[in-house]
Design brief:
This is Glycosyltransferase. It comes from Acidithiobacillus sulfuriphilus. The chain has 320 residues and is α/β, with parallel strands linked by helices. The chain folds into 2 domains: 226 residues, Alpha-Beta Complex (Spore Coat Polysaccharide Biosynthesis Protein SpsA, Chain A); 71 residues. Helix 1 links the parallel strand 1 and strand 2. The structure holds uridine-5'-diphosphate and magnesium ion. The site of uridine-5'-diphosphate has 16 residues, from strand 1 and helix 3. The site of magnesium ion has 5 residues, from loops.
Length: 320
């Protein structure tokens, strides 16, 4: 079993496959490392190019072909599922991350007994307005929410302790917030960062457009909601619900008393309407809490559902 597994999601990177594999071989050649490249349904010839590289370079290079384009997160999960190392290092396939940083990250993780060593693109080579500024806002918010003090959540180049990383199932666009999820599974002082190199994309185009900037912000709200309340949605909705329900009940009780004990007519009092509304709103919120609780349960119990389908593998057993 290799000590380190490198996991690289890759989609339509025909111009990068050759240079990427050469750079990986140069940086990791004799090390106790397996390299798992996940072809996320490429249709530009990357698939065949990857097979050729693996064929020529030997067992160290392992390829997983996904049936279609499932997205970067699902592709990473496919690689993580197949990995056998004690440490998993993820990075991009367009050579924006530098394969020479892989071993230093992994070695620090092992030497200092950490769970995450996150790459920090101190010198980020991306557009300012659409990439760097939104990500600065996002990083600040995630720091607040999670208490994990990283400068650069979005950097894909990170080393993880496999046993911890395998404790979360990634779906949607979660790969951007992995340390935030891991912070729910381990102590935050076991998650550290380390500056890494960053280069402009070597060939081809970014797979993400302007819509991602907005998606990240929407995701953030979700992360906040999920991290905060997922364990017990009932605590969130239930508290609001009980508040409204008590207020409504008190108002109705008051009206009941003045009508039947004191004989006061209440027919057109605004309080009657307010009382009924609060009462109903309270019931609704409670109900939402209960539903949320049930959903959370179903979510947790359906964890072993796969988010991707494998078409074929090279130098790897196909997943069961
Ligand atoms: N990627 C993927 N599936 C996708 C989109 C992207 O596997 O649906 C890969 C892509 O090939 C690259 C990495 O994810 O290796 C990061 O993508 P990209 O470079 O386009 O993102 P950016 O660097 O612009 O954030
Ligand atoms: Mg890139």
């Amino acid at each position: 079993m290799p000590q380190i597994s490198v996991v690289i999601p890759l989609y339509n990177e025909i111009g990068n496959v050759g240079p990427l594999c050469a750079a990986l071989a140069a940086a990791l050649g004799s090390a106790d490392v397996e390299i798992i490249i996940v072809d996320d349904g490429s249709r530009d010839g990357s698939s065949a190019a990857l097979d050729r590289e693996a064929e020529q370079r030997g067992e160290q290079f392992k390829i997983i072909h996904l049936q279609r384009n499932f997205g970067q997160t699902a592709a990473m999960q496919a690689g993580i599922d197949a990995s056998r190392g004690e440490v998993i290092v993820t990075l991009d396939g367009d050579l924006q991350n530098d394969p020479q940083d892989i071993l230093p990250l992994a070695q620090r993780l092992l030497a200092e007994d950490l769970d995450v060593v996150a790459g920090w693109r101190k010198n980020r080579q991306d557009g300012l307005l659409l990439r760097k500024i939104p990500s600065r806002v996002a990083n600040r918010l995630i720091r607040r929410i999670t208490g994990v003090w990283l400068h650069d959540y979005g950097c894909t180049l990170k080393a993880y302790r496999a046993s911890v990383l395998k404790g979360v199932r990634l779906y949607g666009e979660m790969h951007r917030f992995i340390p935030a999820w891991l912070a729910t599974l381990t102590y935050t002082d076991r998650i550290v960062e380390m500056p890494v190199r960053h280069h402009p994309r070597r060939a081809g185009q970014s797979k993400y457009g302007i819509t991602r900037t907005f998606r990240v912000l929407v995701d953030l709200i979700f992360v906040k909601f999920f991290l905060g309340y997922s364990q017990r949605p009932m605590h969130f909705f239930g508290t609001i619900g009980l508040g409204f329900l008590s207020l409504g009940s008190l108002m109705l009780l008051y009206l009941f008393i003045i009508k039947f004990a004191l004989g006061v007519e209440i027919a057109d009092r605004p309080m009657l309407i307010a009382g009924v509304l609060f009462f109903l709103a309270g019931l609704q919120f409670l109900n939402t809490g209960v539903l949320g609780e049930m959903l959370a349960r179903i979510y947790h119990e359906s964890q072993d559902k796969k988010t991707y389908v494998v078409r074929g593998t090279v130098h790897l057993e196909p997943p069961a």
